[in-house]
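Lab notebook, bench 4. The sequencing result for the construct came back, and we need a structural model before the next group meeting so we can plan mutations. Quick request posted to the team channel:

Model the 3D structure of this chain.
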Amino acid sequence: MSVIGYIIGLGDRHLDNVLVDLANGQVVHIDYNISFEKGKNLRIPERVPCRLTQNIISVFGVAGVEGLFRQSCEHTLRVLRKGRETLLTLLEAFVYDPLVDWTPGLAGGLAGAMYGGQGAGEGQDKREMEHGLTFSMLGVRVAEMKGAWLENQHDLVAALFQVEESIGVWLELAAGLAKRGEDLTAMHRAMSMLKEAEVNPGHRLHTLLDIYQRHKAIEGGATAAKQQVLIFTQECDKMVALHQRALSSISGPQLAKWGQEVTVLLEQVGISSCNTVVTFLENAGQRELLGQYQQTEQELMTGVRRLGEEVKRALDQLNMYHALTSLYPAAGRTQHRVNMYSMWGNKLLENFSTETCDQIATEFAGLFSVQPTRVRELRTQHVKNMNMQLEQWNSEIIISMQRLYQKMMAENIMKPGKSGVLEELGRTREM
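Done. Here's the predicted structure in token form:
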């Protein structure tokens, strides 16, 4: 603002005409009545170009006027010079219609205003005035030609865009040429290496075929190993799926239903079917065939009973297996060998590298290694404690059953011996 005030001759800059915005510290000027160096004609003339006191300079800091203030002034002056035509166009109105109070005491009227308050022959030189008017008219003509200049500017921008595109194409071609130069250099280097190999029988290029064959052998072995890992992983996944399917089959009411079906089947085995053909075979005189039929039927019934007992025993084993597996912790299933093999196989198929193999080997050693570890010792101690607790419960149950047996024998509730025990068990089942 100091530079702008200097350019337009702004005066009367006292504290009432210079305000400060307390929100951001910006200085705001008001009251532009004393302009165009009118302050020089005041009762006490103002000779300074702008208001720059020692207090203001102290606010500028260590750099003073040679710091940011000087840079701002220079930048403002450059902007004003760049837009001087616009400024002259705006000030041209004062040439044709000057202010009356420019004439001291209003003595000279319009002529005094035009010639600085003096007579027409004693004021500003007429030739300088004509020069000023000529330059002002030039500014008007420039404003009239602004449209054509703007159109030329648009054409120039379009041409510059085309030049930019052409430069981009040239840069691409230059990059391609540089790439071809690099390829040519690499070919020359390869040619030199080939010539060295022709001269030197022990050159490493002579072993290139062996190296390639070893590489292909290793690559083929890696592919075969990856295929074996894939097959093994699929088998493990199949085993896990079958195990989950088997657990879901025996975890519901299916075992009880199968047991009832086997019991009904064993009850129906005792019904003989030879009674329907006895009369017919006796009347036909085929007693020998009847004996063979009865013997075969008896063997068949015996085999069916034996098969039913085996099936019931298998169902009991499955029921016991389900009861035991339900007591296993969740980690015992997820960390089973088959599950871990499946997980490791999938991980290895995703990243078939030596780092993955080392990681899997480390995890395997931590879970299934025969070497004693802290985790394995804790698991072994846990199994021993559980085994001792189960043996203690078994001893307590046997002692309790012996006491109940002796009490029932003393009260004559049960017959003595094995037959009495079986009879009591049968009665309990019927209840």
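The two ends are 112 Å apart (CA to CA).
Will bring this to the meeting.
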